Inverse folding.
């Protein structure tokens, strides 16, 4: 039995029925897609080798035509532009392999350039966001400082409560028809600047002519009567507690 007869016998015993058709269909249906051209070409040639000795085995020129028709579309464009003319299958595959590797390297460089541009854009975007955040933070800090200043000013100018009237002050009010909290129309003085009412104060202010006079004295020529009016600005704010609520 010759080797050729031996291999035919092995195939008939160990391989499934119709295996030739199965291998041929897989070979002819294969395409390069995104695989390296050399890897795909080796796969096609391996399947064609399995068909050696059968009617489905392809000659080298037919393998070349199959590889040429089913190669990657981008590679096919470069292949047409390169105008490769080669009848030897092995040499033809080597030339197309070099062309395909150049194409892949170009795609890699293009991808890297795009990724670099995206990283740069992302970095600029992050820098802009950080700048905007700092600006808003500074604005809030300024507002906070203004609020603190305003609060501090408000606290420093807060109205001070008057102390309770002394018995001497009450007596002076009664003697000079002074204002009390029940008939005061001009508001109440600030306790921080209020001075205790005394007889000397009334005497010192009785000749002052102003809308804010503390004491106004009217002396009638034909009478010994003296009229004293003490405005509310001197007498208090009407906020005294307890028995001083009439002030």
């Amino acid at each position: 039995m010759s080797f050729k007869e031996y291999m035919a016998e092995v195939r008939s015993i160990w391989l499934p029925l119709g295996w030739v058709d199965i291998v041929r269909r897989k070979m002819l249906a294969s395409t390069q897609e995104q695989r390296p051209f050399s890897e795909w070409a080796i796969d096609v040639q391996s399947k064609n080798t399995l068909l050696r000795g059968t009617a489905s085995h392809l000659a080298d020129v037919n393998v070349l035509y199959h590889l040429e028709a089913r190669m990657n579309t981008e590679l096919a464009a470069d292949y047409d532009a390169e105008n490769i003319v080669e009848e030897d299958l092995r040499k033809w595959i080597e030339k197309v392999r070099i062309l395909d590797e150049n194409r892949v390297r170009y795609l890699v460089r293009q991808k890297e350039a795009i990724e670099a541009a995206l990283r740069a854009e992302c970095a600029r975007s992050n820098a802009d966001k950080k700048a905007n955040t700092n600006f808003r933070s500074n604005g809030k800090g300024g507002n906070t400082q203004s609020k603190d200043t305003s609060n501090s000013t408000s606290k420093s100018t807060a109205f001070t409560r008057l102390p309770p009237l002394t018995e001497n002050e009450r007596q002076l009010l009664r003697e000079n028809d002074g204002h009390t909290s029940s008939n005061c129309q001009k508001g109440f003085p600030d306790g921080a600047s209020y001075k205790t009412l005394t007889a000397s104060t009334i005497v010192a202010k009785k000749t002052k002519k102003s809308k804010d006079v503390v004491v106004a004295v009217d002396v009638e020529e034909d009478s010994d009567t003296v009229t004293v009016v003490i405005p509310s600005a001197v007498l208090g704010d009407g906020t005294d507690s307890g028995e001083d609520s009439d002030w």
Q: What stands out?
A: Strands lie at 216-219, 226-229. DSSP finds nine helices and two strands in the chain. Residues 209-228, 232-247 have pLDDT under 50 and may be disordered. Residues 221 and 231 are 24 Å apart (CA to CA).
